[in-house]
Write a sequence for this structure.
């Protein structure tokens, strides 16, 4: 039993990483209706920027804020310059664009900062949290930040004019345009916010997985899986999905014999798919009713 | 799916505007390409012949994805898994059971058809990004499954298997590479004709009806579940044949040659060639074979970035892929005729 609780706790700790990433995935999915394959690389690039700032002697929180601002602007710029011209192109062409963006960012980061693994500082310290061996203060801090972020987003979308405008632009673009919402800029704003959230995820994850250009590969896959499991239309679902995926993965690794580190991912994905077969819109997603 | 409809609508307009001429232009181009494919290998080095063989093989794999996505509207990131199953079927049969290479190809087509059909069953409930995730899971699982211990006797585990390259039959005076090229060409042409006719048949119409509107298709009496799984099966079968040919051409199979990267390349090939336009598959295959090499020769350190930029250029210029160029060509030819 103790093994079980320990594994669940460890799962929740890694789950916080996935939850953070899943939140960023859902944000952009809400704004543009696609899964952005380059999201992890964008987060990685932001994390490198903050690392570079700290190398130049900027204190952690100042670097954190500057990186957030940079990511927000960069996200908007990427949308305006690269993806706005593709609005009318087919969906699959947009997906190809994401893959191209992925290649560009990954390879440039490798050239600027090379592929060696770098240490990344944590603002929360890494002592055991409340005497537990499995959760460090950093991981507890990460869970705390994810929950805060979720609350912040909830209030933003429910109680601000601009949040309402973004929701309107995402769900019924034509009607939103008729009541005077600039839907095209709402999409850009969605990109900016998603990139900023992604950079927070990156900076929180980096102390755990270490900083290098390929650090996000695995995390992004789990983030997608978490977002899909929770239902792509619900930020709350994404966070719950993130924790569930973390726990799934750990329990599968512990209790199913013959599952090494390498089969953990396929098994976690298989579990998620079996959930989706029962609930095709995810655990907390809304069912979309289509007209013929 | 509205985007796909748009493409189809454009295509129809172009064909209506220039009915006769368009046909001759299309047929003419195919004949020229076919002639080039037949004659060129006689005058080039073995390495170029090998590359042309790989072009045909990847072309087949992209074609298979095109039938699935362009035809029936189902998205797949799992094509690398079907490719791997085909490659391993051939390699194991050739090396462990001493079966002739040519015979392993129909066998792996059947095996992969069955595999794809079965995979299509649970995938029926999923569509869009959910299906993408499911097929993605298949692609990430496949290399790990091939490494499993109890299969190691057959698959060779991490090391993989070495495949013997076949000699030209009947004492034909040509090198192994040249023979393999012509063999691949024959298989490719046969599958291409099969695919074109499939999409024109009753089943092909059913695929497209499902792609355009599933609910409308089912109310018209199309058996949605049957045709969706069938599309998966056919696509997997063709991919399996490509995998078999690939294994014979490369003379080696190993789990790590068939990762998700392969599936993503095939997807890019389809987009560059034009979704739902079969001849485009080979243009797309050329893109995914030659452009990464080109990017590497431009800049070693930044090859990924150069590839990304080139890809962006292509999708900006022709968002609908090579198909768009073909349509423009037809319209241009039509104008010439009118004047």
């Amino acid at each position: 039993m103790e093994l079980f609780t320990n594994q669940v706790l460890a799962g929740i700790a890694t789950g916080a990483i996935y939850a953070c990433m899943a939140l960023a995935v859902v944000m952009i999915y809400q704004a543009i209706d696609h899964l952005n394959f380059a999201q992890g690389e964008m987060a990685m690039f932001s994390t490198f920027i903050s690392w570079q700032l700290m190398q130049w002697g900027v204190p952690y929180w100042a670097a954190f804020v500057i990186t957030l601002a940079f990511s927000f602007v960069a996200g908007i710029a990427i949308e305006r310059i690269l993806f706005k011209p593709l609005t009318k192109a087919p969906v699959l062409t947009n997906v190809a664009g994401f893959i191209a963006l992925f290649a560009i960012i990954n390879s440039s980061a490798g050239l600027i900062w090379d592929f060696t693994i770098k240490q990344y500082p944590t603002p929360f310290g890494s002592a055991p949290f409340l005497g537990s061996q499995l959760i460090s203060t950093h991981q507890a801090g990460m869970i705390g930040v994810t929950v805060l972020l979720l609350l912040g987003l909830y209030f933003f979308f429910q109680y601000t004019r601009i949040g309402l405008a973004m929701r309107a632009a995402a769900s019924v673009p034509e009607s939103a345009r008729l009541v005077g919402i600039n839907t095209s800029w709402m999409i850009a704003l969605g990109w900016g916010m998603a990139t900023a959230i992604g950079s927070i995820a990156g900076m929180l994850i980096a102390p755990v997985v270490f900083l290098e250009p390929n650090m996000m590969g695995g995390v992004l896959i789990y983030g997608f899986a978490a977002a899909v499991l929770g239902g792509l239309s619900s930020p709350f679902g994404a966070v719950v999905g993130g924790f569930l995926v973390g726990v799934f993965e750990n329990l599968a690794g512990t209790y199913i014999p013959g599952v090494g580190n390498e089969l953990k991912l396929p098994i976690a994905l298989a579990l998620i798919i079996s959930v989706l077969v029962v609930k095709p819109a995810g655990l907390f997603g809304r069912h979309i009713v289509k007209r013929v | 799916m509205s985007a796909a409809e748009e493409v189809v609508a454009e295509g129809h307009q172009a064909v209506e505007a220039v009915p006769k001429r368009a046909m001759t232009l299309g047929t003419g181009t195919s004949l020229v390409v076919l002639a080039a494919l037949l004659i060129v290998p006689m005058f080039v080095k073995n390495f170029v012949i090998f590359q042309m063989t790989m072009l045909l093989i990847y072309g087949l794999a992209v074609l298979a994805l095109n039938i699935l996505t362009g035809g029936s509207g189902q998205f797949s990131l799992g094509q690398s898994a079907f490719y791997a199953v085909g490659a391993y079927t051939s390699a194991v049969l050739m090396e462990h059971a001493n079966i002739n290479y040519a015979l392993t190809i129909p066998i792996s087509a059947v095996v992969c058809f069955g595999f794809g059909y079965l995979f299509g069953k649970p995938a029926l409930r999923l569509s869009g990004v959910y299906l993408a995730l499911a097929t993605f899971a298949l692609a990430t699982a496949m290399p790990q499954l091939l490494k499993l211990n109890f299969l190691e006797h057959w698959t060779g585990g991490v090391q993989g298997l070495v495949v013997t390259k076949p000699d030209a039959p009947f004492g034909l005076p040509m090198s192994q590479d040249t023979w393999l090229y012509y063999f691949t060409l024959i298989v490719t042409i046969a599958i291409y004709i099969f695919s074109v006719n499939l999409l024109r048949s009753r089943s092909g119409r059913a695929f497209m009806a499902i792609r355009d509107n599933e609910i409308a298709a089912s109310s018209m009496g199309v058996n949605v579940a049957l045709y969706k799984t069938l599309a998966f099966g056919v696509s997997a079968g063709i991919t399996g044949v490509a995998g078999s040919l690939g294994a014979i051409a490369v003379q080696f199979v190993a789990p790590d040659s068939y990762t998700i990267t392969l599936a993503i390349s095939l997807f890019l090939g389809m987009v560059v060639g034009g979704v739902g336009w079969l001849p485009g598959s080979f243009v797309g295959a050329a893109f995914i074979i030659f452009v990464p090499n080109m990017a590497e020769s431009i800049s070693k350190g930044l090859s990924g970035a150069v590839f990304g930029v080139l890809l962006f250029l292509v999708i900006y210029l022709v968002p609908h892929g090579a198909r768009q160029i073909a349509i423009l060509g037809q319209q241009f030819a039509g104008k010439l005729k009118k004047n």
